[in-house]
Structure formats: C-alpha cells, structure tokens
UniProtKB/TrEMBL annotation:
Localization of this protein: Nucleus
Disordered, as annotated region: 75-134
CDD domains (alphabetical): TFIIS_I, Zn-ribbon_TFIIS
Signal peptide: none
Official protein name in the record: Transcription elongation factor
Gene Ontology CC annotation, any one: nucleus
Recorded GO MF terms: RNA polymerase II complex recruiting activity; RNA polymerase II transcription regulatory region sequence-specific DNA binding; zinc ion binding
PANTHER family: IP08861P-RELATED, TRANSCRIPTION FACTOR S-II ZINC FINGER DOMAIN-CONTAINING PROTEIN
Entry-linked Pfam families: Med26, TFIIS_M, Zn_ribbon_TFIIS
Record keyword Secreted present: no
Lineage: Eukaryota, Fungi, Dikarya, Ascomycota, Saccharomycotina
Main location: nucleus
InterPro entries xref list: TF_IIS-typ (IPR035100), TFIIS/CRSP70_N_sub (IPR003617), TFIIS/LEDGF_dom_sf (IPR035441), TFIIS_cen_dom (IPR003618), TFIIS_cen_dom_sf (IPR036575), TFIIS_N (IPR017923), TFSII (IPR006289), Znf_TFIIS (IPR001222)
Domain (TFIIS central) ranges: 151-266
Length: 311
C-alpha cells in the first residue's frame, strides 16, 4: 500500500462516523500497511489511528490497540535488523581489508553481476541478481528468440520484463517461467498466433506489470501459481488481493442492503446480539445461493445496529 492510498483511508476515517466502516478501514490498514519508521513518519497514519483509541465502541478501540502494538513491534524489528546488518557489514569490511585492491574490486563486480568469484581460495555465491538497469532480456543478457515467429518471441520478452519487475531472481530462471507461460497460452489457442492469443498475452502481461499486484508476480515466479493454471485465470482471479477484499466487502454490504420494497423484517428474541447482548433483533431471509441450498438469514440488532448473517 502506497502513501496516497494510506492518506485516502485516513481522510475517510476522519469523515465517517459509521462503526462498521471504521472497522473495515482499520482492517485494511492492519493487513496492508508495512510499518517502517520512515513510512509512519511520512503518512502520519499512526497518529490518525491512535486518535480512535478512545472511541466509544469497544471493537474499534480494541482493534486500534492491536494495530498500534503490531506497528511498534515491526518498527522495533526493523531497527534491530538494521543494527545487525551494520554489525555484519563491519565484520565483512574488517576481513576484506586484508585483501589486495584488485581482489576487492573483483569481488564487488561479481556481487553486482550476481556471479561466483574465487578470492583467496574461497568461493562466494550470490543467489540474487542485482542491476542498476531496468530489467529486460537485452539488459540481463538473455536471448528470447526461441521461435521463427516474432510475435511469440515478443510475448516471451514482454512476460520476462513483467516478471522481472522488482525481482532479484536469476535471468535464466525468469526466462524459463516466461517461456512456459507462452507455451501454455499458445497451446490453449490450438497452436495458432490468433487475435485471441494476442489479447490473452496482453492481459497476462498487463496483470503481471500491475504495481499494486506484486503478490501475483511472486506466486508465478516461485512456482506457487503454475503456468497451466495462470493462463486460464479470469480478470477477477488475477486482481490484486486488496481489490478482491474490497469487492468482497462491498458484496456483503450489498447483500444486507438488498431488501426489496415489500421485504418484511420480523423482530424476535430468539437471537442474541454479539455486541450488546440484547435480544431485540429483527431479521429477514433471502435465497442468496442455488435453489437447493438453505436460505440465508440476515439479522440486525434494533438496539445497537450490529448486523450479521448465517445460513
């Protein structure tokens, strides 16, 4: 979650008085904000959230305390890790002063290129690939001309560039994944470079390039999401997790609000509100799933406004 998105949520928190909306917004912040000292200072999100600590609703105040505690722990861990890295760098620096100037230069160049180098009889292997250039097949020294068809080769190049965004995975591993995705897509359209093939490739590349969806690139690269499954996913399945959660929240809200003009709400004392423990609950039932499934019961506490549902 970037600075602009956090500031938008802060603005909504300051404007809304609805408890359910406040809880939803706090839940998004708790799940999506990666708390670093710099980020918290920049957005002032900690100050905004802490203002709700004294909220009259116990659910809100409790959630605020958990969020603040979690963020403090993350910042503390960040500082410890920083000190640890500094100490480690100091030890490495002390040991390398014994090397000749040529050996040190060679080691640094090898680290930048992500390759192995022998120094004083020892081998240093760097798993990550680090470069100052934008990662593309050409800049990474990778050839993608696997086929005579330029469209297929261009698709692999586009997939490679999208998968490599923000990644330190070795070029040879990325190109294997990119080629596999292109092959599966090609097979899905009867082994032809058709308009459907081109449109599908554009869609896959655009979703992989989405800056708000790094989880998708990571899952594809680490093998958690296999190419054969990835190429048949629809736009809803490819969407960022934050958008999926937002859509799910809106869907649930719409279910509660989707009461017809003649919808009758019965009041009963059979249900107990989980928030205020009162037995003044109105309810109605709707068929939200297939016809052979039981009705969904929607409940609203007449005392505090708390709402819930069950099947």
């Amino acid at each position: 979650m970037d600075v602009r998105e956090v500031k938008t949520i802060i603005t909504n928190l300051e404007k809304t008085k609805d408890t359910k909306t406040i809880v939803q917004l706090l839940g998004i912040l708790k799940e999506k904000v990666r708390a670093t000292e710099h980020f918290l200072r920049l957005t002032k999100v900690g100050v905004a959230v802490n203002k709700l600590r004294s909220n009259a609703d116990p659910e809100v105040s409790s959630l605020v305390k958990k969020i603040i505690k979690h963020w403090k722990e993350e910042v503390s861990k960040e500082k410890k890790d920083k000190h640890h890295k500094q100490d480690k760098a100091h030890v490495v620096h002390s040991s390398t002063t014994k090397q000749t100037e040529e050996e040190v230069k060679a080691a640094k160049e090898a680290e930048a290129d992500g390759i192995s180098v022998k120094t004083n009889g020892t081998t240093s292997q760097h798993a990550g690939f680090v470069t100052s250039k934008t990662r593309t097949p050409a800049n990474d020294g990778i050839k993608v001309n696997f086929y005579e068809n330029t469209t297929r080769n261009g698709s692999i190049s586009g997939l490679y560039t999208a998968l490599a965004i923000g990644s330190t995975v070795q070029p040879k591993d990325i190109v294997i994944v990119a080629k596999s995705i292109e092959e599966r897509t090609f097979d899905c359209y009867d082994g032809k470079v058709s308009d459907k093939y081109r449109n599908k490739m554009r869609s896959l590349i655009m979703n992989l390039r989405n800056k708000k969806n790094p989880e998708l690139r990571e899952k594809v690269l680490n093998g958690e999401l296999r190419p054969e499954k990835f190429v048949v996913m629809n736009s809803q399945e490819l969407a960022p997790e934050s958008l999926k959660k937002l859509v799910a929240d809106l869907h649930q809200k719409n279910l509660f609000d989707a009461q017809g003009a003649v919808q009758k709400r019965a009041v009963t004392d059979r249900f107990v509100c989980g928030r205020c423990k009162k037995r003044e609950v109105s309810y109605y039932q709707m068929q939200t799933r297939s016809a052979d499934e039981p009705l969904t019961t929607f409940c609203t506490c007449e005392n505090c406004g708390n709402r819930w549902k069950f099947c």
